Amino acid sequence: MTPKNSRRGAQGITIYFALGQCSIGIVLVAQSEKGVCAIYLGEKPVSLINQLLQQFPHAILMGDDSHYEQLVAEVIGYIEQPLSTWRLPLDIQGTVFQERVWRALRQIPLGSTASYSDIAEQLGSPKAVRAVAQACAANRLAVVIPCHRVIKRDGQLSGYRWGIARKEALLAREKGQ
């Protein structure tokens, strides 16, 4: 999906999706022809599907395909055993700054954390702490773009699009607890 198509709500783009259950709730995984474009976490399937509809309002959404159920199983495996390597193609769409933040997040080692300030400094924009937080909030690819590894400067957990309890569980799992 091109950035232009993404801004237009994925008009004319076919996006396949499926839902699954894991230890931290329901998982929705969506894929365009380019790659995985959304991984959402939540409690209610309807809520996750509504998020997908809001993100891609003009896409042709296709569910209930057994191939994509296998994709969900792979994502769940990645969530449950974070030592596994992500090997599926991604369709990442964001602003230039968001994509820079998301690349930096993918460099945070498994079991480690970084502060919003650390990421802003790493990007050469030490005053862009809020912009880093906003990029984390805009992340559509839970776990794969590990915004759950970003914490406050004082070491405390802060907001997470899919809930603080999930953030805490993911971090504990990555640290082997």
TrEMBL record:
Pfam families reported for this sequence: DNA_binding_1
InterPro entries, alphabetized: MethylDNA_cys_MeTrfase_AS (IPR001497), MethylDNA_cys_MeTrfase_DNA-bd (IPR014048), MethylDNA_cys_MeTrfase_DNAb (IPR036217), MGMT_N_sf (IPR036631), WH-like_DNA-bd_sf (IPR036388)
Segments passing through the bilayer: 12-30
KW Zinc-finger (keyword) present: no
Domain Methylated-DNA-[protein]-cysteine S-methyltransferase DNA binding: 97-175
Coiled coil: none
GO biological process: methylation
EC number of this enzyme: 2.1.1.63
Keywords in alphabetical order: DNA damage, DNA repair, Membrane, Methyltransferase, Transferase, Transmembrane, Transmembrane helix
PROSITE patterns attached to this UniProt entry: MGMT
CDD domains hit by this protein: ATase
Keyword rRNA-binding applies: no
Catalysed reaction, written as an equation: a 4-O-methyl-thymidine in DNA + L-cysteinyl-[protein] = a thymidine in DNA + S-methyl-L-cysteinyl-[protein]; a 6-O-methyl-2'-deoxyguanosine in DNA + L-cysteinyl-[protein] = S-methyl-L-cysteinyl-[protein] + a 2'-deoxyguanosine in DNA
GO molecular function, one term: methylated-DNA-[protein]-cysteine S-methyltransferase activity
Protein name: Methylated-DNA--[protein]-cysteine S-methyltransferase
Organism: Rosenbergiella gaditana
Lineage: Bacteria, Pseudomonadati, Pseudomonadota, Gammaproteobacteria, Enterobacterales
